[in-house]
Amino acid sequence: MTDYPELIEHYIGGRRVPSLDGSAVDVLEPVRNTPYTRVAAGKAADVAEAVAAARQAYESGPWPSMRTRERAVILNRIADAIEARGARIAEMEAHDTGLPITQARGQAARAAENFRFFADVIVASGDEAYSVPGSQLNYVTRKPIGVAGLITPWNTPFMLETWKLAPALASGCTLVLKPAEWSPLSASALPDIMEEAGVPAGVFNIVHGIGEEAGAALVEHPDVPIISFTGETTTGKIIMRSAAEHLKTLSMELGGKSPVLVFADADLDAALDSAVFGIFSLNGERCTAGSRILVERSVYEEFTARLAERADKVRVGLPGDPATEVGALIHPEHHARVLDYVRIGTGEGARLVAGGVVPGELAGGNFLRPTVFADVTPQMRIFNEEIFGPVVCVTPFDTEEEAVALANATRYGLAGYVWTGDLKRGHRVAGAVESGMLWLNSHNVRDLRTPFGGIKASGLGREGGRHSIDLYTEPKIVHVALGDTHVPRFGA
Ligand SMILES: NC(=O)c1ccc[n+]([C@@H]2O[C@H](COP(=O)([O-])OP(=O)(O)OC[C@H]3O[C@@H](n4cnc5c(N)ncnc54)[C@H](O)[C@@H]3O)[C@@H](O)[C@H]2O)c1
Ligand SMILES: O=C/C=C/C=C(\O)C(=O)O
């Protein structure tokens, strides 16, 4: 299937509309970097219309005041509608982002799961009460926060959009989504899905466009009390500054440079499988990628050699080919940036043991052979900066203390991975690594009830399970006297 819209439009108040000033930008196909469609480029005026539609839907109901069970029925219908077109969504995602089709299918399935999961969470959510018998009853109810602004990145766009849409809708918010401008295609499936599921017009809106215009206007809009953002740390800081003007609620899921600690007593085969998958799946364009592998010196040379050998065998190819393991990076600018890091690493004296080259037969697209740098030191830029591609750094360590110090020698703190046969040490190190999430003798398996997010420069706040519901709702505490009230008598 290759029939794509000629123009990807906004979706405002239940209507597909172009930008008010008619502007649009090209969208490139990452395998050959030619434009294959255009996306509407929204400005402040388009954002204002979308926020007005969302606000109207919030104020006139029924969405925010609907019984949670009824909203859950609609969320499950959204999941059904995603599943019914899962193959098409995956095909669009692979075409638009360069993600391998088999992995894009997994992401589409996870998108449906996001809606089913939050349907369950919201039905199971209750209010809180704190009673002091005979004296006081304090109860807490939660109200949807209002019009939510959701701003999402280009890696796994559909999954990450739904990771925010599902809890925002479950909570009773109405919303405006601003997808990433490099990957708008899969979001164009959402209006049909929402209509088919019975989401009332105005509850769900999309404004496309470039971050500094459409995204910035959403952050600046006074009628949007919350911004949930996933993207780069630098962008997160800009958004925080701008959101400070209206004291907005913020959730920030930002970048990472996550360490994988491999101790000599670990199951080295499992650690190797996890290390290879952790950096090369999703083209390495993954926030939780294990991009720094720290290996105990006694197994360092052997582990590095095996890692390089596996990297050399990873199948780089066209995203639509089911045999492909690493596809094309999102955009020529990003590709150039990742290639720059290959040059930087070499220039800094790191030892290139695999990849580092654009496969000749795929020239013209944003391809890169899986790349492994060994002997990387904490002084090097490739150790410190998020590359966000199929490039991994390997560094030796001698002691547990040194391993932890190296793991933490970064401004980021999103995820960590620890491999050891000594469980006491495993728990000790798991506690000492500075990260919001840590996998011990496990690869990146997610339980959607758990808090997802990072510390340090990797973000603020958590999403997942009740943490997402907390984010999209405001608590209201009511204090009730149960007995006689003894108010101090001033001025009596
Ligand atoms: N922690 C997580 O959960 C997580 C998940 C996925 C990706 N990421 C991070 O995302 C980054 C890659 O995504 P990206 O390059 O699309 O990020 P980005 O920050 O460039 O863009 C993200 C979104 O923000 C918008 N934007 C850009 N400038 C803006 C501004 N001034 N105001 C408002 N919106 C603006 C963009 O249009 C896009 O929709 C990586 O750093 C990656 O680690 C983090
Ligand atoms: O690239 C970032 C991946 C983020 C993953 C999630 O938000 C998730 O698994 O819920």
Provide a descriptive summary of the structure in words:
- This protein has helices at 44-60, 68-84, 86-97, 101-124, 157-171, 190-197, 211-220, 233-244, 268-280, 297-313, 332-347, 381-384, 400-407, 423-432, 465-472; strands at residues 7-8, 10-12, 15-17, 24-29, 34-40, 128-132, 136-144, 147-151, 174-178, 204-206, 226-230, 249-253, 258-262, 290-296, 351-354, 371-374, 391-397, 412-413, 415-419, 437-440, 455-456, 459-460, 473-481.
- The chain is an alpha/beta fold.
- Helix 2 (68-84) packs antiparallel against helix 5 (157-171), helix 4 (101-124) runs parallel beside helix 5 (157-171) and helix 9 (268-280) packs across helix 10 (297-313).
- The longest helix has 24 residues, at 101-124.
- It is globular, with a radius of gyration of 24 Å.
- The chain starts with 6 loop residues before the first strand and ends in an 11-residue tail after the last strand.
- Bound molecules: nicotinamide-adenine-dinucleotide and (2Z,4E)-2-hydroxy-6-oxohexa-2,4-dienoic acid.
- Residues 151-155, 160, 178, 180-181, 210-212, 215-216, 219, 230-232, 235, 238-239, 253-256, 287, 386, 388, 414, 454, 459 line the site of nicotinamide-adenine-dinucleotide (NAD).
- (2Z,4E)-2-hydroxy-6-oxohexa-2,4-dienoic acid binds at residues 155-156, 163, 286-288, 446, 452.
